# Entry
Amino acid sequence: MLRIGVLVSGRGSNLQAIIDSIEEGKLNASIELVISDNPKALALERCKKHNLKSEIVERKNFSSKEDFEKAIASKLKDKGVELVVLAGFMRILSNTFLSHFPNRVINIHPSLIPAFQGLNAQRQAIEFGAKFSGCTVHVVDESVDGGPVIVQAVVPVLPEDNEETLSRRILSYEHRVLPQAIQWFSEGRVSMKGRLLVIEGAKYGSLPVN
Ligand code: GAR
# Structure
């Protein structure tokens, strides 16, 4: 069973998708710790409901970003976490953190990266006039919403879409691809070939297949 830690900042619907997949027996992983940098995150309520260990680690309580990241890394290490999942964690992690979990920090982002990185990805897609967008689960490197792609799902951007309707459409796929990506790690199917990430046994490159 893969021991995971989940970092959140807000609503936590992706955290919920992970919880549901575990409870449904589709995802062979255990959530050892949830860390929120935001004490008001709805994600923390979800932890209570499902008896998950959670901690609040606020940036403002540390004099440097380095100390903040070290504190998070050490809490995760103490719990024996093998894979760190950023599920709506709205901070950029530096190498101080990433070096503790090489190629073992993953993030979900609501666009087909490298398009529309950063904040408000869905609004960016609409304002750009993109006809398709989607979501990406990727290994985190020091770039913003960048790093080797694990899986992507594509959705159309409809002429009548606004930020909310597009976000909703993308989110329904986020909830599918994130547990899928974690399951691939759990099965030991993910490896790096240079900069490229390979999923053993996946027939269609980055499509969400079993
Ligand atoms: C999700 O749409 C996720 O892709 C996005 O924040 C939302 C969190 O929702 N993440 C990013 O934009 C990261 N750059 P959630 O809290 O309900 O999972």
The first helix runs from residue 13 to 23. The chain has a mean pLDDT of 95. Strands lie at 2-8, 29-36, 54-56, 83-86, 105-109, 132-139, 149-156, 190-193, 196-199.
